């Protein structure tokens, strides 16, 4: 039976819950807003199956991809809606065309992130775009298993630890399963995200501001769309945006909030690693250990690796093809992409999350002390903990002035 001595020893993949023959494991929320398994020892028969499917206990070897690409979906609309180059949608559409089923992460009616499946191309829209919140797997591994055993082709997408959990859960390789994960920085707490949503709605709800035209105080149920990677200001300067459903008498949905990554409190806290799951600071599956067929990511710094690349700031995917099966799938969609073969060593250098955990900052503890104390607002706590010190602000200012001077000198020399 699984015994967790430290929180970092569980990535929350829920493989153990779904494999237990006595159904005596349930996921319980902790005080940081993450879920962990709790075993009912009275029902447990000590069969050890839960340990056999756990990706933290059963780790795989480090891998190198067979091929690496910088790639963009030629469909501009899909690329705009996707986080990087929109390659996930192409892979998924291919599986749907073959009569298959696609699993991914979507929002439910309470704006929680959950795993589910779809069988149509239209259904893929709900999975598009990164949701910077840990998704709940629920019964997705069991559902995927039944489709696979019925002979349907299945594409399962998720975090690398979810893919590792699924593969252990299934026990063997299946020809009709394609697994797609992504380069994973880490997943933020679902509890923190819910608190953030409630606070912004409550704070801005009744007030008019430049983007808000809703006549009544807004409520959670009025939200119609949340986008963590809105590309209105470009791929590199992505925004968090939240749209409300159409109120009576107003023709268009209203954009309630739209803030770039350096201004939005939730994204700032995420990128400062204040509320990642403890296991993400000791990730069991970095270095492509998940066993996935394809790993997707953002090809940040593409022009540093390929100076001639035409970067239109609409998103470029890094595609790591890890297996022969992944290679055949990627080949089938390649005509619908603009792509270029790239180099793994260089890709790792500009995307450290492939191989390296982020350190747990000391401010994480301060954040959760404030989070647990109900008298602190989440927005105020994050802005306090992500505020730059005067020294940092000054050094950034001096660097900016220096760069501008260098640019001016170069311009004059050229002239
Ligand atoms: C929490 C998180 C952290 C990430 N960290 C990095 C990083 O450090 N470096 C990097 O290069 N890329 C990172 N990515 C991946 C990147 O943002 C894109 O998702 C990836 O490049 C695929 O983009 P796309 O344009 O092909 O498709 P998109 O349409 O953007 O891809 C969506 C896919 O992601 C899945 N997905 C979305 N949210 C979640 C979630 N919460 N849990 C599980 N699956 C989810 C969907 O099911 C779907 O398969 C991260 C993604 C997430 C969700
Ligand atoms: S040992 Fe077996 S019965 Fe007990 S919790 Fe684990 S899977 Fe369930
Ligand atoms: S990592 Fe997954 S399988 Fe292991 S204990 Fe946590 S939820 Fe269970
Ligand atoms: S960083 Fe590792 S442990 Fe955390 S969600 Fe990603 S794959 Fe899982």
TrEMBL record:
Cite the source lineage: Bacteria, Pseudomonadati, Bacteroidota, Bacteroidia, Bacteroidales
InterPro entries linked: 4Fe4S_Fe-S-bd, 4Fe4S_Fe_S_CS, Co_F420_Hydgase/DH_bsu_N, FrhB_FdhB_C, Polyferredoxin-like_ET
Residue ranges constituting the 4Fe-4S ferredoxin-type domain according to the UniProt record: 1-30, 35-62
This protein's superkingdom?
Bacteria
Name it.
Coenzyme F420 hydrogenase/dehydrogenase, beta subunit C-terminal domain
**What are the alphabetically sorted keywords of the record?**
Iron, Iron-sulfur, Metal-binding
Please name the source species. Answer: Coprobacter tertius
Q: Which SUPFAM superfamilies match?
A: 4Fe-4S ferredoxins
